[in-house]
From TrEMBL:
Presence of keyword Repressor: no
Matching Gene3D superfamilies: Heat-shock cognate protein, ATPase
Pfam family, one: DUF3298
Biological source species: Bradyrhizobium niftali
Keyword Cell cycle: no
First and last residue of the signal peptide: 1-20
Keywords per UniProt: Signal
InterPro entries referenced in this protein's UniProt entry, alphabetically: DUF3298, PdaC/RsiV-like_sf
Taxonomic path: Bacteria, Pseudomonadati, Pseudomonadota, Alphaproteobacteria, Hyphomicrobiales
Protein name: DUF3298 domain-containing protein
Chain ranges of the DUF3298 domain: 165-230
Length: 257
């Protein structure tokens, strides 16, 4: 009997601990049409300006999807008989380079009662010194659409994607048709981050993040293409030369980003 009481107490403690471990959303919308949440990781929340920027964007995303869900429910209420849509957005820091450039991943989950839920991934590059979002343009001498830098990036991205597809045994989709969306333009090549490095404070190159459907069928999931910094060495500015160096850590290549 004592043993049973102890076991019950331990079980209750485990349940309480599990509940306590669940992160609390930083912004929420819950209506008959939708339940949606935004999460910021603790490292983001430690930077007030970055947290405010992400949260403002996240709240706009919540409001936009809540309005769309309400309109959809009004037009086709039968599609909501089993409940509303379910949306979630998570912001997480991927790397910090030169104690200045903060790279974030923004992962979205969307369930609108279709054939399957969908997901999306995007990236944010935050300049701690300027306290604003920037692009990777300052690291390269030119980034014109169709220019030499962007063409070199696309070539390296496709090499990486083909290697990844070979590892997954999905080489049959390593075709021009699936890669046609990877264009030599900063706005069309894919969501990019500065990859971490074996050398402290440096970046080993660029990682490009693709959600399901972007460069392969839904069943293949997300892809991450890695472009080592030395492949782009001829196109680096002085600041690019300063921040790039080292190699990609083994764990970064093996773990989902």
């Amino acid at each position: 009997m004592i043993g049973l009481s102890v076991a019950m107490a331990l079980g209750a403690t485990c349940v309480i601990s599990a509940l306590a471990a669940d992160p609390k959303p930083d912004a929420v919308v819950k209506t008959k049409s939708i339940a949606a949440r935004v999460f910021l990781d603790d490292k983001i929340k430690a930077d007030a300006a970055l947290a405010a920027d992400c949260l403002a964007e996240g709240r706009k995303w919540l409001d936009k999807n809540a309005a769309e869900a309400a309109a959809a429910r009004k037009e086709d209420p039968q599609f909501f008989k089993d409940g509303g849509w379910d949306f979630e957005r998570k912001y997480a820091i991927r790397s910090v380079v030169a104690d200045r450039y903060v790279n974030l991943l923004r992962n979205d989950y969307m369930d609108t009662h279709g054939a399957h839920p969908n997901s999306d991934v995007n990236t944010i590059l935050w300049d701690k010194t300027e306290r604003k979002r920037i692009s990777i343009r300052p690291f390269f001498t030119e980034t014109a659409d169709g220019g030499p830098t962007m063409k070199a990036m696309v070539k390296a991205v496709i090499v990486s994607l083909k290697a990844e597809k070979k590892k997954r045994d999905t080489s049959e989709t390593a075709t021009d048709e699936w890669f046609k969306s990877v264009e030599p333009s900063l706005l069309k090549i894919g969501a990019v981050t500065l990859a971490p490095s074996t050398e402290a404070g440096k970046s080993s190159g660029l990682t490009f993040h693709y959600p399901p459907y972007a460069v392969g069928p839904y069943a293949e999931g997300e892809y991450v293409a890695f472009v080592p910094w030395d492949a782009l060495k001829p196109y680096l500015t002085a600041e690019g030369t300063r921040i790039f160096g080292g190699a990609r850590p083994k764990g970064d290549a093996e773990e989902p980003q």
